[in-house]
Each structure stands twice: as structure tokens, then as C-alpha cells.
Design goal:
This protein folds into two domains: 73 residues; 71 residues. The chain has five helices and no strands.
Length: 148
């Protein structure tokens, strides 16, 4: 296990505790964000520290080596690579369709006068996300086609 995992865990836990302290000591409009960041930082930091100390323990060293070997094999397996690529493509197409359906649904709501100020903002935001995802898909395809 790398030492960077230990340092990252300490940093996350310290950040989480600092956010908790700020949330306790101050009153602020976005105080709930501090509580959320505190929980996320402390929880993930403590988990990283536990994993580090668990896997660096000499009696768990052999099991850790086996897990690393298995993970290395799983990452290089051609079938798994193909499945990951295919699932990414299916997710990409599904999200494009979902954005289009949501834009249409909010368009209907806007034309009927329901959720009026929110519907226009939702249409604009989803339209921007749709365009960004589509352009990013094209850019990723072109990059990968040149690289591979």
C-alpha cells in the first residue's frame, strides 16, 4: 500500500474535521454545505486510513498481494475492456435520450405555464448539458481514433 494513501486519508480527515469545526462555530447561510463536506471528508478519510493500516499489517500482506494480482488481471482482460467500452457507449446514448426527453417535458411544462420560471432555466441548463456531452463525445472519439 502506498504512503500517498496514508497522507491523502489524513488530509481528507483533517479537512472534514475542519469543516465540522467551522459549521459548529459559525452561522452561515450555506452551513449545511460545511456539514456535508465534513461528513464526506471525515468518512472517506477514516476509511482510507483504515484500509491503509489494515493492508499494511504483516498478517494481511499476502492477501493484499493476491488482490493486487487479481485486480491487475481484471484491468487487462480484453473481455472486460470490451464490456466497459460497450457499457460506456450505452450509458452515453441513454443520457443523450434522457436529456432530450427532459427538455421536451420541461418545454411542455413551460408552454402550459407550470413551474414557469424554473422550467425555462431547466430547459436552458439541460440544453447546455446536452450540447456539452455531445461535443465531448465527438472530441473523445476523434482523440481516440488518432491515438489508437
Amino acid at each position: 500500500m502506498k504512503k500517498s494513501m496514508l497522507y491523502t486519508g489524513i488530509a481528507y480527515a483533517a479537512f472534514g474535521i475542519a469543516c465540522f469545526m467551522l459549521a459548529i462555530l459559525s452561522e452561515w447561510k450555506a452551513e449545511s454545505l460545511l456539514w456535508g463536506f465534513g461528513g464526506a471528508g471525515t468518512g472517506s478519510g477514516m476509511m482510507m486510513l483504515w484500509k491503509y493500516f489494515h493492508w499494511t499489517n504483516p498478517k494481511n500482506r499476502e492477501e493484499y498481494e493476491k488482490r493486487l494480482q487479481k485486480e491487475c488481471i481484471e484491468l487487462r482482460d480484453e473481455r472486460k475492456i470490451m464490456l466497459r467500452d460497450k457499457s460506456g457507449r450505452i450509458t452515453y446514448i441513454f443520457m443523450l435520450l434522457l436529456y432530450c426527453l427532459l427538455i421536451m417535458a420541461f418545454g411542455v411544462c413551460a408552454s402550459l405555464g407550470w413551474f414557469m420560471p424554473f422550467a425555462r432555466y431547466a430547459i436552458s441548463g439541460l440544453g447546455v448539458l446536452l450540447i456539452i456531452q455531445y461535443l465531448f463525445g465527438i472530441a473523445a472519439f476523434r482523440y481516440l481514433s488518432k491515438r489508437l
